[in-house]
Write a structure and sequence with these properties.
Distance between the termini: 10 Å
Largest sheet: none
Low-confidence stretches: none
Strand content: under 5%
Mean pLDDT: 89
Radius of gyration: 15 Å
Helix content: over 70%
Length: 67
């Protein structure tokens, strides 16, 4: 059950990251560089770091969940 939960957590993190990348890309393509776009890109990079940590089990809770 724990491995299934870990798999679903990874899938959710990746899906959220892909969606955030898509929204950031749309903002960049519109060429309207505002503070909101900067914050969106910065949060996308942060979420990418978190997603990488979850998938590679760098966080202790993810490591315990996968056991």
């Amino acid at each position: 059950m724990k491995k299934l939960l870990f798999f679903l957590c990874c899938c959710l993190c990746i899906c959220a990251f892909v969606y955030m990348c898509y929204k950031s890309w749309l903002g960049i393509e519109s060429k309207q560089y505002t503070l909101d776009l900067f914050v969106q890109i910065l949060s996308t990079l942060g979420w990418g770091y978190i997603t990488y940590g979850v998938v590679t089990r760098d966080f202790t809770w993810a490591e315990k969940l996968c056991k």
